Prior knowledge:
two-stranded antiparallel ribbon; single chain; 2 domains; 13 helices; Helicase, Ruva Protein, domain 3; alpha/beta
Amino acid sequence: MNEAFEHIVQQISSVxxxxxxxVRLALTCLFAGGHLLIEDLPGIGKTTLAKVLAKCLGLDFQxxxxxxxxxxxxxxxxxxxxxxxxKFHFHPGPIFTRVLLVDEINRxxxxxxxxxxEAMEEEQVxxxxxxxxxNQPFFVIATQNPIEYxxxxxxxxxxxxxFLMRIEIGYPDxxxxxxxxxxxxxxxxxxxxxxCISKDDxxxxxxxxxxxxxxxxxxxxxxxxxHFTRTSPYFHVGLSPxxxxxxxRAARSWAYLQGRDYTIPEDLQRVLPWVTSHRLHTxxxxxxxxxxxxxxxFKEISVPV
Length: 305
C-alpha cells in the first residue's frame, strides 16, 4: 500500500501546496474510519483539502455552510407532503453522501450541531422514528473558526469526542504560497483530476486496517498513556476508553499506510498529539494544552523496546 499511498499524497499535495504532513494525517483519519476537525482561519485551504481528497478517492462530496439559523432538517433532510399521492415523501439532506464538509461547524447552534452526533458515531440518522443508514464510507470533515471569532458556538465535549483527529493547516510557507499565487485555479485543477482509487478500494483498505496486528507490548504502552492522563496532575480529565480506541485505530491506520501489517510504538507517538489535543485540558483553568507541550508531557511515559 505504501506506493499507492504516496501517489495519493502527491496528487492531493499538487493542489494543497506545502501541506504534505496534513494531507497524510487527513488520509490516515479517513482510512481509520474516523472524522476530522480542522480548526483554522478562513482562506487557509480547508475546503480545498476536503474537495480534492474526495475527488482523488473517487467519493461523492457534499458541503454544508453552517449558519446560526440552520436547522437539523437542513442537514439530515425532511419529509414533504405530496397532495397528489396523499403521502409524505422523504427528501434526503446533504448528509447522505460519502465525504461531507461541514464548513464553520461552530457557527451552527447547538441543536443543529447535535444532528451530527448520531451520524458520526452510528453512521445512521433517525428521522420520524425511522432509521436510515448512511453511505459507506462516510467521512466528515468539519472546519471550525477560532472561538474568539464573532457568532460562534463552542462545540461541547461530546461533539469534540466524535472527531478522531483535530488538525490546524496554518499559512503556507513562502515557496508554496508563490506556487499557489502563480498556479492554476484550484477549482479547475480539481475538476480535471482523475480519481486515484475507487470507493470499493477505500472500503477494502478500511477493512484491512482493522486486521493490522497490535502486540501486547503495544497495548500495554497504550494503556500506560491512558492511565497517565487519568492520574497526572497536568490534566483536568483523563482520556476515556473511546479515546483509547481512537488512538488504536489511528495508529493501525498509520502503520498500514507505511506498508506494515503490525503496529510499533512510533505509530502511536506519530498520531498521539492529533488524537488527544482536543480531548485533554489543563487541571488549573481547563484550557487546551499546546501540542508541543503535550508531547513533552507524554515523554514521561516509558516506551517499550
